What we know:
Chain A is mostly beta strands. Helix content of chain A is about 15%, strand content about 35%. The longest helix of chain A is centred in the C-terminal third of the chain and has 20 residues, at about 250-270.
Amino acid sequence: MEYTPTRDRYTYTFGGAAPVMRVRPGTVLRLWSDDAFGGALRSVDDLSSAKVDLRFVNPQTGPFHVEGAEPGDTLALHLVSLEPARDWGASAAIPFFGGMTGTDRVVTLQDPLPDTTWIYELDRERHTVAFSARHSDHRIELPVEPMLGTVGLAPAGGEVRSSLVPDRFGGNMDTPQMRAGSTVFLGVNVEGALFSVGDGHYRQGEGEACGTAVEGAMTTTLIVDLVKGRAPGWPRIEDDDHWMTVGSSRPMEDSWRIANAELVRWVAELHGLHPMDAYQLCSQVAEVPVANVVDANYSVVVKVAKALLPAADAYDAIHADLRQRARSL
Amino acid sequence: MEYTPTRDRYTYTFGGAAPVMRVRPGTVLRLWSDDAFGGALRSVDDLSSAKVDLRFVNPQTGPFHVEGAEPGDTLALHLVSLEPARDWGASAAIPFFGGMTGTDRVVTLQDPLPDTTWIYELDRERHTVAFSARHSDHRIELPVEPMLGTVGLAPAGGEVRSSLVPDRFGGNMDTPQMRAGSTVFLGVNVEGALFSVGDGHYRQGEGEACGTAVEGAMTTTLIVDLVKGRAPGWPRIEDDDHWMTVGSSRPMEDSWRIANAELVRWVAELHGLHPMDAYQLCSQVAEVPVANVVDANYSVVVKVAKALLPAADAYDAIHADLRQRARSL
Amino acid sequence: MEYTPTRDRYTYTFGGAAPVMRVRPGTVLRLWSDDAFGGALRSVDDLSSAKVDLRFVNPQTGPFHVEGAEPGDTLALHLVSLEPARDWGASAAIPFFGGMTGTDRVVTLQDPLPDTTWIYELDRERHTVAFSARHSDHRIELPVEPMLGTVGLAPAGGEVRSSLVPDRFGGNMDTPQMRAGSTVFLGVNVEGALFSVGDGHYRQGEGEACGTAVEGAMTTTLIVDLVKGRAPGWPRIEDDDHWMTVGSSRPMEDSWRIANAELVRWVAELHGLHPMDAYQLCSQVAEVPVANVVDANYSVVVKVAKALLPAADAYDAIHADLRQRARSL
Amino acid sequence: MEYTPTRDRYTYTFGGAAPVMRVRPGTVLRLWSDDAFGGALRSVDDLSSAKVDLRFVNPQTGPFHVEGAEPGDTLALHLVSLEPARDWGASAAIPFFGGMTGTDRVVTLQDPLPDTTWIYELDRERHTVAFSARHSDHRIELPVEPMLGTVGLAPAGGEVRSSLVPDRFGGNMDTPQMRAGSTVFLGVNVEGALFSVGDGHYRQGEGEACGTAVEGAMTTTLIVDLVKGRAPGWPRIEDDDHWMTVGSSRPMEDSWRIANAELVRWVAELHGLHPMDAYQLCSQVAEVPVANVVDANYSVVVKVAKALLPAADAYDAIHADLRQRARSL
């Protein structure tokens, strides 16, 4: 099934929007999503102060109603492929937004950094995007490493959150781990789960320091699946090599605490370890790549290489099964 | 030159101790350092509450007075090799210490986690340490990946800091990046620099969640060198593959801000980029592996792969030169 | 106009609920609100783990649609009187909730504090509530100082937030400053403003350390008014003696930065001061009573005594006018 | 005993300096201390960027060796009187220092706020200092409310800390509660305690937002006393009306947690309450005036009015005794 939203079907929240489609577990979706700016930054002369309203960024493709999904279930989304859908990406230093500036939360009285836009040209053959300096002649080609900034579903308790927010429901986690080959597990809060995706990045550094990645429209192929019950407390990601969890809060140590506790719980479940032993073991094997330090909440990934631990299956080995299904597409 | 401190020569601070030796730039040192606990935890029955005083952990080997080092200079320490100096390492969940418990700063009224010690046996042939669960029969062999928790020098302004603290002077940064093959650059604050090393880890997960790594006595071979002037604001690390910076503060987003700003400055220097362009570029290429979330200050590493950027030399290519010298030892 | 919601009309969010009533600016409302627990804790044997669901606390009375209110306007609510509506209040140490315990954000692996409920008897003649220790015979009478924990309106950007959350839209600010005689100014985000109130406290310490105040059903008399345009960035409060602002975020220094910047802006407006002069002046005259360190966001009040500054009028002296109207009721 | 340090006897650290004098418990000291800037800012044309080195601010008068003081003891300092020792005070917005700007920890890439100095004239008859706006003609007289920014002693574990730092040893707590009539209790870490005072403020707002108060040279009369053993975990302050504790750390919620836990412990001790009951009681009666959000650590005061609790004596009623002795001077 394919779906490309018309602009009037863009949504800017998790929760609060009527589903655009009902899908059955097992469905393969091919989805087009616009970039974080809704395509508004197309040249270095397009400034974010003129063209971007931070209340309406990260337009979502969705939400999708998953048949049979009920609160307490686990939505599994397997990312089969992510393909840049335009020949350029855009990034910007938005005034009072990002990690190296005062913001609407880290309020200072200083002047903003200069509103600046960078355009990255995509070279599909070389699989690169080109950084072009704005203040000198530097041009540096960087590998394309497509990922999705936002994958989320409707929050609990009737909340509706901006698509700029990452939290327990997933959302704008902005981690490079959200790439082809990954399966993300999200706890379902409402009937139908109501998940959506968007905010494609042609590449992003960990931390997403300036507040924006190489933002680009994306064509995402994913498989939707459902595990009854067993909702994780916070988003979990599995790929062929790692078990991963994502915490999103403030200050950043709280994001880490959330993700680390979730990983300790997961490792304990997978291997039948006592929590204190899982805590000790994770302390010696975890990797902690920061996702972003710029959004409404900061996101931190904690992960462990499968190769370091005994073999184990999560959620009845659904990731391996989805990988298999993906290969056969 | 070799140096193994007797127990009465252990020091527990950066600054505040008389040098144990004077060394010239270019000197190769072979240093033995005790583990973080001063060797006090040798079986699972040795509990930290009985045997460890947190005011006196991470015994330092040093300090060393580097001839010619003056405030504003840059001390370069190249780690040639790190060899476990005992056949076992120890780790512990120390009451009210670590990342998943209330502490003396994150104060709660809850009971402590159970005081627990783990002993890891080293297998020198297999290059592994073995995790043995305390509450089940699990035994998991993990690769030995030796690193130093503490590398630091005397602080500025006449301060003396516990060897439990990481800050601008380096110290207890607890990052796995501090391993053989790395060159660390530290800004000199006092005549002679007065650096010391210690807190060897046979391996450590990023975050060092439980507060302690696989702590072990270590034999470290390093080359001391000096760059006149050009002191970095915060610790910088270079290895063959990455430019790295380390920020240590609280909350963790401040540690990240420090390290990220230092990396932006470094990349701007190395490549002649405008700060806004360096900010943008780093936003798309940085990796951010958290070092620890448990010490007096939290440490975050920000790094960028050399392969992604044009070729460049830092500090007159001293790292390449030190690597060459290391190979010829 | 009087309004007492039946239980099926309780709402648990800011935004996302249909208005219960339309009111004109100038209307006097007399409102009954249930306590934070929906009246579920009536004896020390009623434990929060059995009777309280944190997704559905702080039942709101409202929302009220204010005629003529449009985005960008300023809603002014003047609290005329707050009267305890029951003869007892309740407080609880809810497992994994509060300031001196690990929580769902400050995650630790420790056991929770013991789930404990305290009941405070109200003495209407003495104007006291009585603290009765649970572990000894201490009984201490404390003055009743009624306040509202939550006063908020619908958020911007289509968001819907739990009534446990304080933010830019007001909400669960949990400050003792929200008491009879205060006028609160909130920026309107949606047509009709859609404000609600709830979470009455018979008294509360600053910080609300254990997570709950002396929670009690409340009868609130307030006057609704509207200022066209001039929406403040964050909640402002005025009483006869102070100009006040409230910031709500995490970490707590960000809450303070928000509130302090808002106060600097307000003082600059009121007195025609340059922002740097207002910054300096506020630095020497501000008081900073923390509101709460326990909610989804932490709230900090920054205030300045009117007596320290030259006379000034905010919003066309509407507070003085409302005080006058209140006296004549 | 009187003591006015010559400039070469100024010290800039807690710990690390030889005592200037030995005093017996019970001694009355009359001490002159220079202002935070060492008197360098005397007109609005004296800019901090030219005249202030942040490594050497808050010159201390001391340290004083208290005879008989041993680790684990409690130093009691009773402030009898604080008298401005000059006819003017100075304040400054120091580049990259303060609460409403990026700093060396909250690093941003923005330009600094304009380096600005304000001079406050003291009127001894009217007991006022006069704020004179730098960008308009506003002149506002403010009451003189003298306090000491720094009161501290040598840290534990051989550490030496800058006089810019507040922590467990007291230090640069920058709270208006440190005023005449207060008794501060500090845990002794080294033989002789080695306390010092400085950083007089003619007045200061809570939060000390711009980073500096109305800084002024001060003549402080205090009584030194000693309680054997019973060292508090963190600084405690008692005056006629309040029990107070001070926490200093980062992020600010950790400062609050520290102070609140210390107050809960103190109230439990004073009244024989179970910790859970003391936690509950303090939750309903505490006041939380923020001290500063600008120093190396942020400081938060938690206090409770004696009038709300049953009568109690701390440290054998030494405060009442010191008040009595002060009156008889």
